[in-house]
Design brief:
globular; 110 residues; 11 strands; mainly beta
Length: 110
């Protein structure tokens, strides 16, 4: 990526042609808060980049802009505690993720 440091809007190529990422470039890589928009400029993700990789709190939205996931990314994958929502905004899964996959573990209560 040959982009000046500072605020940027990056156009995404295949397979998500028409999508864009609004974020900040530091030392040639995406760093800080970022938003991803679909071709209709509806936000489909709110996340944090560290050296070009999604790391930190995130919210993911469907193509109409309704939330379907809230949690964290670590090295570009859903990781740790997260929630999934149905099309009406109701929580349909709350639990833990490892490398993007739901884990079948239940937290212990004291």
């Amino acid at each position: 990526m040959n982009v000046e440091d500072g605020e940027v809007i990056l156009e995404v190529d295949s397979p998500h042609k028409g999508y864009s990422i609004e974020t900040r470039i530091v030392n040639g890589k995406m760093n800080g808060k970022g938003s991803i928009f679909n071709q209709d400029h509806i936000q489909i993700a709110s996340l944090v980049f560290v050296d070009g990789v999604a790391n930190g709190p995130c919210k993911l939205y469907d193509e109409e802009g309704s939330i379907f996931f809230e949690g964290c990314f670590v090295n570009g994958y859903r990781e740790g505690k997260g929630k999934e929502y149905d099309e009406n905004g109701n929580v349909i899964f709350e639990g833990f993720y490892e490398e993007g996959r739901r884990m079948n573990i239940v937290p212990m209560k004291e």
